[in-house]
Amino acid sequence: EPEVTQTPSHQVTQMGQEVILRCVPISNHLYFYWYRQILGQKVEFLVSFYNNEISEKSEIFDDQFSVERPDGSNFTLKIRSTKLEDSAMYFCASSPLTSGTQYFGPGTRLLVL
Amino acid sequence: AQKVTQAQTEISVVEKEDVTLDCVYETRDTTYYLFWYKQPPSGELVFLIRRNSFDEQNEISGRYSWNFQKSTSSFNFTITASQVVDSAVYFCALSETSNNAGNMLTFGGGTRLMVKP
């Protein structure tokens, strides 16, 4: 069964450093998403991406964040200058349709020191 | 604005008991979708069910059942004869359709279910 994959599973970085989180969505899906979950809290929407552009973003997704689909398979989230409060689990998701079921990857746990 | 409330932060049951997880939502859309996801201790988010706002039929899948009531804006989840493997955090989520460009999920705060042997 196809699944969303994410790399790395864990990343530790120093405050102010740039990080890139990578995702490979399910191959025939058209909509891609990033969410984050601060430890012990709810899952929060960051951004949705369709047809090679951002379709929706939350207040959390400020100028420090960017997304890209550099090729036909990868979908990346970049944080330019990490802050302590960026420490969280980051989930990628993909969906074949708008309002379709979103299937989540296993997550990348980011720790900013 | 859309909102999902899961009032039960934590529930503890003994194996084989039935348990119901509550979910109440708010939305101005007439067409929307409701979801349940399971987050086991390993951390991934596992899709359980998707329901659209026009389909109020209850659904049963094995030991799992869902009760959708538009009149009370609720989408409750029942596990029958709970098992230790059901121990997880369960999230209810809502997707509106007013924005057609790939609809974000709004999650509730989650309910941590602990099933004791």
Write up this protein.
Chain A is mainly β. Chain A contains no helices and 11 strands. In chain A, β9 and β10 form a beta hairpin. Chain A is globular and about 35 Å long. Chain B is mainly β and 117 residues long. The chains are: A mainly beta (113), B mainly beta (117). The interface between A and B is medium-sized, with 29 and 25 residues.
Oligomeric state of the chains present here: heterodimer
Residues in helix, % of chain B: under 10%
Rg of chain A, rounded, reads 13 Å
The profile of the biggest β sheet of chain A is: 7 strands, mixed
How much beta of chain B, percentage-wise?
over 45%
Radius of gyration of chain B: 14 Å
Proportion of strand residues of chain A: over 45%
Overall mean confidence score, pLDDT of chain A: 94
The SSE order of chain A reads: EEEEEEEEEEE
Tell me the structural class of chain A.
Answer: mainly beta
The tally of strands of chain A reads: 11
Query: What's the overall geometry of chain A?
Result: globular
Summed up, the helix count of chain A is 0
Distance between the termini of chain B: 41 Å
- Class derived from helix and strand content of chain B: mainly beta
Q: Count of helical segments of chain B?
A: 0
End-to-end C-alpha gap of chain A:
37 Å
Poorly predicted segments of chain A? none
Portion in helices of chain A = under 10%
